Amino acid sequence: MFKFTSHTIVNNNVCEIYQPLSYFASIWMVAGVMAMTKMNLFQSVTSALDNTLASDPTAVIFGEDVAFGGVFRCTVGLRDKYGKDRVFNTPLCEQGIVGFGIGVAVAGATAIAEIQFADYIYPAFDQIVNEAAKYRYRSGNLFDCGNLTIRAPWGCVGHGSLYHSQSPEAFFAHCPGIKVVIPRGPVQAKGLLLSCIADKNPCIFFEPKILYRAAVEQVPVESYTLPLSQAEVLQEGSDVTLLAWGTQIHVMREVADMAQEKLGVSCEVIDLQTILPWDTETVCKSVVKTGRLLISHEAPVTGGFAAEISSTVQEECFLNLEAPISRVCGYDTPFPHVFEPFYIPDKWKCFEAIKRMINY
Ligand SMILES: *[C@@H]1O[C@H](CO)[C@@H](O)[C@H](O)[C@H]1NC(C)=O
Predict the structure, then answer these.
(1) How far is it, in rounded angstroms, from Cα 183 to Cα 211?
(2) Per DSSP, what are the bridge partners of residue 179?
(3) Can the peptide bond before residue 176 be classed as cis, meaning omega within 30 degrees of 0?
(4) CA distance 245 to 182
(5) Which residue's CA is the nearest one to ligand 1's atom 3?
(6) Which of 11, 15, 162, 194 has the most CB atoms around it within 10 Å of its CB?
(7) What are the average pLDDT values for consecutive 10-residue runs of the chain, which has 360 residues?
(8) What is the DSSP letter of 68?
(9) Can 297 be counted among the known catalytic residues?
(10) CA 112 / ligand 1 centre spacing (Å)
């Protein structure tokens, strides 16, 4: 079997070593060895968009500044390659961007909208939750906008302050009819984005902006997909399950190493990957084994998606729990500027939570 081993260059303290991925192995068994090249996360997003524009003549990409490459460079070169009718700028109006995207998708094309920052997705909230998410249901499946994908940079970046740091996934997780996906690195970003584009439901794809340039991996040049609604166990362990997504998964891996070294505690690390609909089975199976669950995200703790997971897990795994489920999340404040290092759920806060669970 072909073994997938990625070469990872690390900076920003974000460290990642990918496991062999068996689904790639099966793709490569069919296709022969796929061409791979080094990409960081923004380049793997560009590559996914490039594949889509090349293979699907109806695909269009639009948003603020996407024509010249986007503020994070995710659409670099695509207008020159595919023309200004397929990659184009929109007015500065998020409600308009998503409304237009719904129309494009309903009319039969593949619509890929960019919202420049997840913090600015709120003007489009009505279009997403009242129109996109309900279109199929309210037409009795006569019409749908499943070919709409909305991409947006997401999460903290070190200096983003109130309006360039937010993680709004929980707002959308409350809305049946859409999917919400967040990748942790270049290989996942490309495979999951292509799955969102192919999916028959409107999808929101949040890209951790601090990871855009953090690490480089070998990523297949051709198109491939990774399954939605499937969490990935990155490290097996027996004492505590650590659950996160996006940037926070890298913190969890570091915490798992600390717990092993300093406490002799064995942690299982799970990347949820899809927030809605989420993979309850993988998470609950792990908690039945470990008896302890720590969930961590940057978004404020109250009403964050960790609360939903915690509720489901206590329903499903009550008799297996050795300690209360622990949430280490952002505080219930606006995202701060100079106080960002105190706000984020860093490895020390997570490590303390593990100690509390073990000593419970
Ligand atoms: C969505 O895209 C697929 C693949 O291009 C196409 O077969 C389907 O008809 C599209 N859906 C709608 C509602 O246009």
Answers:
(1) 10
(2) 203
(3) no
(4) 7
(5) 147
(6) 194
(7) 32 36 46 84 98 98 97 98 98 98 98 98 98 97 97 97 97 98 98 98 98 96 98 98 98 98 98 98 98 98 98 98 98 97 98 98
(8) G
(9) no
(10) 13
Asked if domains 3-220 and 232-358 share a fold, the reply is yes
Other CB atoms within a 10 A radius of the CB of residue 9 amount to 10
pLDDT of residue 10: 33
Domain spanning 3-220, CATH architecture: 3-Layer(aba) Sandwich (3.40)
Give the dihedral sign, CA 43/47/49/54. positive
Domain segments of the chain: what residues?
3-220, 232-358
Catalytic residue among 164, 169, 268, 297: 164
Per the annotation, the verdict on 164 as an active-site residue is: yes
> 199: Cβ below 6 Å to ligand 1?
no
Residue nearest atom 10 of ligand 1, based on CA coordinates: 108
Q: What angle do CA 67, 72, 232 make, to 5 degrees?
A: 120
In sequence order, the 6+-apart residues with CB closer than 8 A to the CB of 343 are: 330, 331, 333, 335, 336
Q: In testing the pocket of ligand 1, which one of 147, 148, 194 has its CB within 8 Å of the most ligand atoms?
A: 147
Q: Ligand 1: does its nearest atom lie under 6 Å from the Cβ of 108?
A: yes
Say if residues 216 and 263 touch (Cβ distance below 8 Å): no
CA distances from 269 to 257, 283, 286 (A): 10, 10, 9
C-alpha–C-alpha distance, residues 24 and 336, integer Å: 40
Residues whose CB falls within 8 Å of the CB of residue 284, separated by 6 or more in sequence, listed in order: 312, 313, 316, 317
- The H or E element containing residue 224 is none
CA of 71 to the centre of ligand 1 (A): 30
Q: Which residues share a beta bridge with 102?
A: none
* Distance, CA of 205 to CA of 111 (rounded, Å): 13
Atom of ligand 1 nearest to the CA of 106: 13
